[in-house]
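Schema walk-through. Below, the input block comes first and the output block second. Nothing else is stored per chain. Lengths vary across the set, and this one has 287 residues.
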Amino acid sequence: MKKIALATLSFICFTVAALAQAPAQVNKVVDAEDAFNKLVARKGIKAGFLAVADPEGIVFKPRVVKITDFYEGVEKQPGTLQWTPKIARISYDGDLAFTAGPYVYQNGKTDDDKVFGDYVSVWHADPDGKLKLLIDLGIQHPEMEKEATTDFKEPDADKKPVKNKDPFNGKNIILATDKMLNQGLTISSLGAYKEFLSPEGRYYFPGFEPMIGTEQVMKFLNNEAITISAETISGGRSTSNDLAYSYGRARIKKGDIVSNYNYVRIWEVDASHKWNILLEVFSAIEN
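--- output ---
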């Protein structure tokens, strides 16, 4: 009986350990985004954002402000907002995730009242493991003629990440990487992105449809004669060291026009432990 009991206990311990080591599923963040979308449709934009906001969650209106501070300060956000996640990632541990995709905002009754664009949302797990909205911003562009492809990718179960025992050091590494990229941008935008942009990296710039891949981004930067100077504000990293984010301010010269922007970058680590940009989005700061 003792042998049977020990064998049973060993099996239970093995099962629990195996479950604990299993990576999070990307549907966790997709479901959170869909629930948020339905909540906004049912209760309105203000109530929806306040319901899902992380205590430290931010929006850009146009400067960085807490989600709770902004939406508690407005009586009601007019219009309707709908969006569809088309790209989604989640960290191995499930504590950090993001989605991005097209949105439609309408403050009127006709099609002429519709505004089109793409959003980016970063989500962070609370102490109970529930995802809360950490960052939200987007860009406007003309209505897309072709529907965006869906790109939901699970964490690699074969690449068990090294746990981050020092969250402050993890954050500092991302901030240092972000600052290194910003320093490179002052020398050469093309050279900096060639070094830091993932081969499948996405680039979101106001007035343009999202660009995917190094070749397309490089062509855009070259054709639009874009030069960038940027300043890091803050960032963070997952406990499993496989997904991160950073944000800051940028001053971009496009031809002869100079404008100010907020930026958010989503970072992923590659097989050589190098951090690369999976997605970057610029949001204009209106004068």
